[in-house]
Amino acid sequence: MMQAAIHQSVLEVVQSDITQEETEAIGNAANSRLAGGGGVDGAIHRGGGPSIMAELKAGYKGCPTGSAVITGGGNLKAKYVVHAVGPVYSGKPKDAELLSSAYRKSLELCTQNKISSISFPSIATGVYGYPVEEASRIALKTVKDYLKDHHEIKLVRFVLFDSTTYRVYEEALKELTGGK
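RE: above sequence
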């Protein structure tokens, strides 16, 4: 685990299983149809049970790329799931804007719902093909910039499933914080 103080908040990078997180909310790498899927999305729906999908179907008609919606956490330890839709990687500059926006909209939902802690996966780096090195820098910088003006969020944790992705995020956090 690696952590950095960002203003009055803590930004952490850990290798773990996001479905076991006890932060108030966990982020989900969702698709724009909010239809469930593989990877993190599938694991969260399996762990949280059918109430999450029922809430998505009842409350939303999809979610545009670069945005996010919120549901209860079902059977998960986290009280909420923030479903963020990252871009399918194309190599165009708009990809970075959309990925940053997905994290920012997720954090805005935390602020609106008085959620003080959230754990994120590495959004869009699985089947959506976003290169982890670039995605990690975008994700961490977006969170750092948001925390500058949003002290109500006390903890943002990036929960990475494998050691390779963890190491990339760890290096990106060191770069972002000057190696502290």
